[in-house]
Design goal:
Helix content: 55-70%
Distance between the termini: 30 Å
Structural class: mainly alpha
Order of helices and strands: HHHHHHH
């Protein structure tokens, strides 16, 4: 069985796709901020100032990798907070609260933590929510530390993926900078196609 030929428009030089056509923004999940993504992209575009479509493609790969790193940081925060919320509910039940009361207090505490994390950054914890837990001898930082220990393997995996992504980002940035040093600026008007 033979190979299916590519559509001619995909390999004729006059029909080359732009970098933006090749790597569109990622799909956004509920709660993600499109403006934050655009700000990240604009900041990297100012920093790297890509001159060609290839450099722009590399820059967009950096944006995608950095966005994925931010998603993982948010996921780590959510994993810790959700695990801590479950543990807070369990401990509140031991104090004789009904399941409904324990669930409400644990949910209120976790909601405060999620809001704080969005405002301050992925590492923020719900320290101001201790008023919800104090009557029961519970502390936010203790719950969060225990939750991190309970989910250590998953968190370590996500952090290792982030370290690899950061290394890829550094390599991509150095590739763009090397390409800019090696080649003079070429404008679209100067490119001559033989097609």
């Amino acid at each position: 069985m033979g190979k299916t030929p590519l559509h001619p428009a995909l390999y004729r030089p006059a029909e080359i796709l732009k970098a933006e056509d090749l790597l569109a923004p990622p799909p956004f999940f509920p709660g993600e901020d499109l403006e934050a993504y655009d700000a990240l992209r604009a900041a990297l575009e100012r920093e790297l100032a890509p001159r060609s479509d290839y450099q722009r493609l590399l820059m967009l790969r950096i944006v995608e990798a950095e966005w994925t790193v931010q998603r993982r940081l948010f996921a780590i925060s959510a994993i810790i907070l959700d695990t801590a919320q479950t543990e807070a509910r369990r401990r509140l039940l031991l104090h004789g609260l009904t399941a409904e009361e324990a669930g409400r207090i644990a949910t209120d505490w976790a909601a405060f933590g999620r809001n704080a994390a969005r405002r301050v950054g992925a590492q923020a914890g719900p320290t101001g929510a201790d008023a919800c837990l104090a009557p029961f001898g519970l502390q936010s930082l203790t719950l969060l530390a225990e939750a991190r220990d309970l989910r250590r393997d998953l968190i370590n995996q996500l952090e290792a993926e982030n370290r690899r992504a950061r290394q890829d980002i550094r390599l991509l940035k150095s590739d763009i900078l090397a390409l800019k040093r090696e080649s003079p600026k070429v404008t679209e008007a100067e490119v001559v196609y033989d097609g």
